[in-house]
């Protein structure tokens, strides 16, 4: 593929007037690209026609094809190989360990498959359980691979070469059937290749890293059964229930297709009939038929937004993260565990709430993919379980979430000394980690702010945040200085306990402010409002010293620390943003001190540092931190490893890129706020911002050429547009639109729901095409291309 040639393509669309809400809901803002001619809005059919005909003028196809991962060497591990998924079923593909020349492993894992023995806690008794894997075993010895993971089609294709011939394969995990389908067409010498399923031991993966709890043992072995031509590996569980992997291979001419499905049930044993039925229904369909509906979902998914930057490596990485997110997440799927649906040996076989879950889902907002928001759904659906995680005397009015839970937000016997997951500040050993629920609810707040969906605010965020903050209020007490103080709590991962821990003070401050704003929006006269105002007025200042923010009043920041738990007020809460020179200096000092300690820094250290730099408008620093991440931590397939596989860091790097391109905290939209000088050209389309606006903008030759905003909710619109000099603002029909100049390149525009505004330099009529930008230089593809 000629990379530079493809980046010349554009989408040209005819004019239509501003879409009504009915039109937006019917067609979706993502179903077409955009060309705004003479200041007129457009949303029509050209991109759809390009999609249908395969025309080379489709910008989504251009950037997605360019971002495909390739393998011309055999991947040896999960960190190197292709990965497929749909939020539930996941498959990582790589050489069979210890048999790289004779077999390829197709892992089979499922995000709902877990144990159900809460007495052993979330990491053993409620842990995700490994299922097993298929091996594709050719006749001859493997001598080469030539694979391509198509992001656009969410499909692996290519050839496996042996000393006896070739195996041409296509593989996918279907978007909604939770079905692994692998079609193999062998050459004559490989006609007798075969598949073998290997059930895994149904024991917590943590057992390979930590001692077993007293009385804990693995589940009994799986039994493989035949059900009228459908094979099934039935895994009974000691607690009751089962999970079942069912499969069948169907031959059509010289092509053979493997169909595999996983089902889980507890406490009943319904998984077996469901899995067998699913395989029987699927294997009636040729692979090509399954692929049609699968591709329809994925093609529509990508069209919900568009982003192109002139750094080819970063741009490819970004689109891979969008693929990864949709492979690992769905609104109705479990909140992502640390390794998503691709369970591998790990000490962390469940969902982590002191950073991982939050970072995993940040990119869904700007990229306009709220259909992946499992956090809001899970916190709402399983809210009753959150009361059981605090001490009994607080359950009437408080909620909490411990560091780790299963998909139902249950921790189990997290602390044998207390029997509940979230300890009592200043009392329980070990020191309690209290803020995790409030931080998780910040994600819910982001989903509300990016959609302005009143039901999310009324039914989920406000009632849950009220009880999360209530837990803090039980322990907040005045000190000799007249200020309100917190007893000892724990700042994630730093170690030691501290009064007035910044992690908790920052979340408490954000929570009280958000509750007051929410109550006003909802028209609620809450009896706790005076207390929330008192907290904001009287809480002790965040502890600082000469180096910046401390861990807490008792603990300075004095050692290498990967987590930015002591800096949440800067990012992502945006409570401390550098409004004054003194505040900006505090952020700069804290950031430099934090990243200045080598030793314990990890990948998400650099994504956090990049986003904090973007807040300060330092695009060069943000790009440098992302470069550190790419060079030091990101694996060939863009996965990430610490002691085990974890996926939050690459996904949060996509959010760091968002923060460089657009920020919308503090009721203002900032267009291109932190771009490095080398990024003279940038295109963004239908980027979702707070206030429920869809932003499109183009930068060319180092100057912002135009900015367009579509309002989905009629919220106040304040835009720092980054266009130099005087501007024109026009509505969707090209007519002048009244606005107020707020100074510093910022305008205030009144937009009703469904209306749009186009901002250009005064007198300019720029080309309004949405198209990929030219790369500054070529870069190797992700995967394992020939060096």
Per the principal axes of the C-alpha atoms, what is the gross shape? globular
Counting copies of identical and different chains, the oligomeric state is single chain
Distinct helical segment count: 20
CATH fold node name of the domain at 67-302: Beta-galactosidase, Chain A, domain 5
Give the helix level as a range of percent.
25-40%
CATH class of the domain at 67-302: Mainly Beta
| Uncertain stretches of 5 or more adjacent residues | 1-48
* Total beta-strand segments: 32
Query: What is the CATH architecture assignment of the domain at 67-302?
Result: Distorted Sandwich
The CATH superfamily title of the domain at 67-302: putative glycoside hydrolase family protein from bacillus halodurans
How would you sum up this structure, described in words?
This protein has 787 residues and is α+β, with helices and mostly antiparallel strands. Among the domains are: 67-302, Distorted Sandwich (Beta-galactosidase, Chain A, domain 5); 352-547, Alpha/alpha barrel (Glycosyltransferase), CATH 1.50.10.10. Helices cover 28% and strands 22% of the residues. Strands 11-12-13-14-9-8-7-6-1-32 form a ten-stranded mixed sheet. Strands 15-24-25-26-31-28 form a six-stranded antiparallel sheet. α18 runs parallel beside α20. The radius of gyration is 26 Å and the shape is globular. The two termini are 17 Å apart. Residues 1-48 have low confidence and may be disordered.
